[in-house]
Amino acid sequence: MTEESIYSNLTQLGGDSKLPDSPEEAVMERVANPQKGSGYVVRFTAPEFTSLCPITGQPDFAHLMIDYVPGDWLVESKSLKLFLGSFRNHGAFHEDCTVSIGKRIEELLEPKWLRIGGYWYPRGGIPIDVFYQSGPAPEGIWIPDQGVPPYRGRG
Fold this sequence. Notes:
single chain, alpha+beta, GTP Cyclohydrolase I, domain 2, two-stranded antiparallel ribbon
């Protein structure tokens, strides 16, 4: 199988892509894991994640940390970026955004393990941090701390 045929199902990589209007419209894509037999962690950091408050329509900001131990699949990073960007005009509470993102990635990839930390900037003077994990961390794989300190200006 050629490299071209392996990636022929990807619709966003290598071309112009419009930011989806909503998370429901966003298409996340996956590619075969070339290190399928190895245990390792993939981390995506989105320090400027944005969504909207569903009540006031005001913007909310978060630092997202997504860690997963892949099985057969990896998320294609451009499609993940577009998916996360689709929340910019989406109204949802912090908890819903964070958990929905984790579950959507979990559904697409069927990873051996996944966690997401949503470290949200204050709303009404209170930062709200939301965490979702698919199950216990697999043994024998180094899973680093997410390294985001409790809120102190989030710098």
